[in-house]
Amino acid sequence: MQRLIALTAILAALGSGAAFANTIKVGVVGPFSGPFALQGKNFQAGIDAYMAMHGKTVGSDTVEVIYRDLPTADPAKAKAIAQELVVSDGVQYLAGFYFTPDAMAATPLLEQANVPMVIMNAATSAIVTKSPLAVRTSFTLWQTSSPMAKVARERGIGKVFTAVSDYAPGVDAETAFKTTFESLGGKVVESVRMPMSTTDFSPIMQRAKDSGAEALFAFLPSGPPTLGFMKSFNENGMKQANITFLAPGDLTQESDLPAIGDTGLGVLTTFHYAVSHESPENKAFVEAARKAIGNPAELSFPAVGAFDGMHVIYRMIEATGGKQDARKAVEAVKGLAWESPRGPVSIDPASRHLTQNIYLREVAKAADGTFYNKEIQTFEKQPDPGLAYVK
Ligand code: PHB
After folding, report:
1. Is the dihedral of CA 198, 204, 205, 206 positive or negative?
2. Which of 5, 43, 62, 79 has a Cα at 20 to 30 A from 121?
3. How far away, in angstroms, is 201 Cα from ligand 1 center?
4. Is 196 exposed, middle or buried (0-12, 13-18, 19+ CB in 10 A)?
């Protein structure tokens, strides 16, 4: 009888919507081993920093993060991992996703699973159009590459050779640069798409020299490919051949700058985040994220995408009172604006992508000998121009 009374009380409480202390699980997919492990480590540092600064609870609910390793772009595996997180682990939110093909592969699961996806890195414009439950806190290649085309024209560059990794964000970077550059009267004289597995970039450097271009615009996914490309640019005498290097900030992530060395000084890139960004919010973030990552020199941009991603997830949990309601969660963050470590940001209600400042930066050396990306110009409140080109 007593049991029956207890059960009735629980059911009555449930019916009245009384708050129970729940554990809300967040499944984070990223490269935590293999060649891109440092990028995944940055996801974790950003998440740890957020939870250290804002606590592990939202209302009466406790947030638990479950990490799943996906070392490289592997859509089939990404889908399987996402499915397992939803079905076996019972996650209420999916997050992370370093590579575009992995994020794309998981989007068809969201509606049926009643789970929002918060993309902390993958940067192809089209991803957010694949599901109304996808929200992005990183950047897009269109957002970062278009301002670089403007800078190139402003600096009098007329002819450019482009080289990008042959997958969706590379195609976006190439199209964004070419479209913007040519609309301003410049000419892309040759465009090369490099297989993801390319490690010898010397033939590309030779082709760029032979093309008669004054500058080389490049995009590869941050990690070993970008460092390899930068080294090859330096070793093949491109500077001496008077070829200017142009790229989004993926090519000069802070963790690569010591290995790029003095030859990288003065290189211009456009990006949404520099570790050196001057603001109280970034100071607090960098301190917490460096503590989380252990080695301060390893801190890089995926950490800020993850930090802001957690901010969005916390607001979603708040709005739903911890209940699993993906639509309500996503609705609640449309138009959300806050001061990120990168600067002011807001979630565009129509696209669910972040509107943010894009900065022109120059690789510089501090008094203590460390290299950093120095912000020298701001393109304010940039939406994603790439959405207009999604087929
Ligand atoms: C992506 O696959 O979307 C991606 C990966 C690494 C980057 C940028 C974009 O640096």
Report:
1. positive
2. 62
3. 19
4. middle
Angstrom distance (rounded) from CA 251 to CA 228: 10
Q: Which of 133, 75, 85 is nearest to 106 (CA)?
A: 75
pTM above 0.85, yes or no: yes
Whole-angstrom distance, CA of residue 337 vs CA of residue 282? 16
Q: Do the strands 354-365 and 343-347 form a parallel or antiparallel pair, or are they unpaired?
A: antiparallel
Instruction: Check if the beta carbon of residue 34 is closer than 8 Å to that of residue 72.
Output: yes
Report how far apart the first and last C-alpha atoms of the chain are (Å, whole number). Answer: 63
Task: Assess contact for 107 and 119: CB atoms under 8 A.
Answer: no
What separation in Å is there between the alpha carbon of 149 and the centre of ligand 1? 19
Which protein residue's CA is at the shortest distance from atom 6 of ligand 1? 221
CA 10 to centroid of ligand 1, rounded, Å: 47
Residue 69's DSSP bridge partners are: 30
> Ligand 1: does its nearest atom lie under 6 Å from the Cβ of 222?
yes
**Rounded CA separation 51/120 (Å):** 16
Decide: 47 and 120 in contact? Cβ < 8 Å.
Answer: no
Quick check: CB of 99 below 6 Å from ligand 1?
yes
- Rounded Cα–Cα distance for residues 147 and 159 (Å): 16
pLDDT block averages, 10 residues each, the chain of length 391? 48 46 96 98 99 98 98 98 98 98 98 98 98 98 98 98 98 98 98 97 98 98 98 96 98 98 96 98 98 98 99 98 98 98 98 98 97 98 97 84
Cβ–Cβ < 8 Å for 168, 225: no
- Kindly state the tokens that stand for 108: 């068809």
CA separation for the pair 44, 46 (Å, rounded) = 5
For the stretch 268-290, pLDDT in tens is 999 999 999 999 999 999 999 99
The Cα 127–Cα 285 span in angstroms is: 27
Query: Does residue 122's CB lie within 6 angstroms of at least one atom of ligand 1?
Result: yes
76-118 confidence digits (pLDDT tens)? 999 999 999 999 999 999 999 999 999 999 999 999 999 999 9
